[in-house]
Amino acid sequence: MMIRIRTRIAALLLLLAAAQGASAATSCSITSVSDLVFGNVDPTGALVDTTATLNYRCSFTGFLSGSSVTLCFNIGPGSGGTGYTPRTMKAGTESMNFQIYSDSARNLVWGSSTAPGLPAVTTHMQLSTFLGTTTQNGSLTLYGRVPAGQTSLAAGAYSSLFSGNAAQMTYNASESILGPPAYPATCTGDGSDNFDFQARATVASLCQIGTASDMNFGSVPSNFAANIDQQSAITMTCTRNTAWQVGLDNGQNALGTTRRMAGGTSRVAYELYRNSARNQRWGTTLNTDTLAGSGTGLAQVLSVYGRVAPQAPMPAGAYSDKITVTVTY
Fold first, then answer.
1. CATH 2.60.40 corresponds to the domain 23-203
2. Is the entire prediction scored with pTM above 0.85?
3. Of 3 and 239, which is predicted with more confidence?
4. Digit-coded pLDDT (tens) for 201-230
5. 111: which of 24, 115, 159, 280 fits an S-S bond (Cβ 3.0–4.6 Å)?
6. DSSP result, 57-122
7. Domain boundaries in the chain?
């Protein structure tokens, strides 16, 4: 009996020795990452939030052993600029500010090991196996935000590419017999994997008419012996670099292309112009008699120049007309 006991103990010691000498290996990789897609951004509207998902996987091969893994996920400035606060997306030479955060409250900027004061996101994983290979999956959420108040944004498709060292996972593993050890203090040493993704947003061309003041010719002599000139204004806001054309129709009482104000059954002819010299009639035919310009992202004031030219006397009374303003962009 004593011999058998010693034989079994020796066999167990040999088994443990074999376990200690058996090869163990940990490997980690990125399995997928989605883009940060902000969609349409209104320069005069509210902030825009979005999220993306980063999936990763670690595998461990061993015998009666475990692995503790420390992983760091580094995100750099991206191709849109060189700074972290804020990060920027580009549409040609135009820039849009945005940010990537590691928390849903969007307080913690997601940085990298090369960004002072803006650390990479660190996470941990433990794997154990009796014999063979075990695999464990993990995921992280990227929280994106385009802040409000960027009223000078130009229309266009904005993007920033994160690739290479600007989007990289590094990891370090500690392995031991009979279970995982303490986590490594650092996340470099055992491997790395890059994850390419884009941040994307679109600023659509947009124009909005704000106000259109009345043109009041006031009290005038009924014989219309001389020109009577007045001026009014249209206020309009368009996304910067948005090409626009503004047209004025002929009103409700026109005879052909002659605008007329109505007072009962009587009509007073008048005209509206695009320039102070009053020799460029303001109509609705694109590229011909409309007023053309480009948006600035701020309110633009367009002057309307009116004139009542000499004409046959009219009965006393109040005369008016209604003009429709159309902006094409």
1. yes
2. no
3. 239
4. 999 999 999 999 999 999 999 899 999 999
5. 115
6. EEEEEEEEEEEEEEEEEEE---TT-S-SSSEEEEETTEEEEEEEESSTTS-SB---TTSTT-PPEE
7. 23-203, 207-328
